[in-house]
From TrEMBL:
InterPro entries noted in UniProt: F-box-like_dom_sf (IPR036047), F-box_dom (IPR001810), LRR_dom_sf (IPR032675)
Protein name: F-box domain-containing protein
Gene3D superfamilies with a match to the protein in the record: Ribonuclease Inhibitor (3.80.10.10)
Transmembrane segments: none
Family matches, as Pfam families: F-box-like
Coiled coil: none
Organism whose genome encodes this protein: Exidia glandulosa HHB12029
Amino acid sequence: MSASRYSVDEVLGTNNAITPVHNLPTELLSEIFGHVGAVRLMRLARVCRVWQSLILHDRALWQSVDLERRRDIRPYYLDTILARSGAREIALCGVCGESIAASVVDVIVAHMARISLLEVFVRCDADLARLRPILMRPAPALRKFSVTNTNFAAIGTTFATVPFLLFQDANATPNLRFATFIGFSLPTATSVPADVVRHSFFSRLETLHIQGHARPFTLDLNQLTPRLRTLPISRGRRPSRLTVGENIDLFVSQYEHSNELLWDLADIRIHRLRSLHGLSASEFAAVLQLAGDFSTLSVTRDDSMFRVDSTCRVEFSMTDGPTCTFDRVLKSLFLPAVSGARGNGFRSAKRLFVSAEVLDVFLTDPPCSHALFPNVEGIEITNLTDSSVLLRSDIVAYMLTTASRVILRGVAYARTVELTWETCLRIFSALGRDDKPRFPGHLELHNIELKVPYWVLEDGDPDECAFLLRVRMFDSQGNLAPGPLSA
């Protein structure tokens, strides 16, 4: 149940409406309160005795504490909140280093052994110095750590290098695997002894999110984070200049221009990655400049959180390389990006998967558009609700007539789509460029019924009859249905 539906102010302002809540099971109330931060739980505990008893005795409700970057937190108040979770782990967010009192720092230090997630916000080096007792303290339960320079978003200021001795060493944070640094420069492994690098908390990180690294020289993450598996990077004022090892999942975001990402990827070997994920058309265009041959291409509906009708989701697998996925790619920029890429990746693609909902990405045909996909051997088009959409693009028609294997899928468990024989002939005739239709060697129709006239079945062309023998039709449940010649 979403916490946003239950505003604390609304609950406090409705006295008579509270009475029916007394009849709710305590398990349901606990589930609702579990979506409310510990700071607001203190206010909810004053609503009624039933709520007070449940809130004060359920220690699990106090495991998530968001200080909301407040600078007026009272030490006793904070200590009471942290103590209510008992011996359980704590997720502590919104710790603001600006003007934080030393007594508040002491309270957090006293509970560091139980903190599993720590989120810190600082404005300047002085703020970072105030939090030093926390950041240099052993944290055996800590799994995620995040520190943000709040000035970075406003003016692009980058702090000094993050110290190697953060949290003392790797033995003091045996469970720390995820770290985020926004507006900071990471340390280089060449300026300190090798044993210090080997025993720093960086050495055990598996996920490292970097934004605004901004160093004039390349940072070798192979040395700094040898166990790294996931690397999210975001646009900064200057290139990050990173090198990474093999089998890394790379996530790129917030790049407005492809050149910005190309600078950041200058020292990253795309073919050595395990996967690459992007969130915009500019990131898609940038990766195309570096990619090699592709084996498969998938263009489907954009189901990301911020999707719009003008965007699509693109995924392709490089030959002997990673799988690259991009959400929110503008449909109008898909083909121009493909045709403008320096590499010949799409020209080597063997398999193509396209959702009928985004077939309009192929409508804006650039010059020599047919040369973009000359080697497609298999094409699958899904979510068809009208077979006539297959006739709207020269590129789709070209691929349908050159692919040896074609699979057309209607929407599962929906009304069967009708494919007339006339439409079928037009689909496989490359829009009239051939004297006779060029039928694929294999055609599968899922929840699509091919309607063949009686005279074709009786006295049709031998090539047409041979093609009909190769057609396989399946019903909406995926069961093999009678073919067009079975009648």
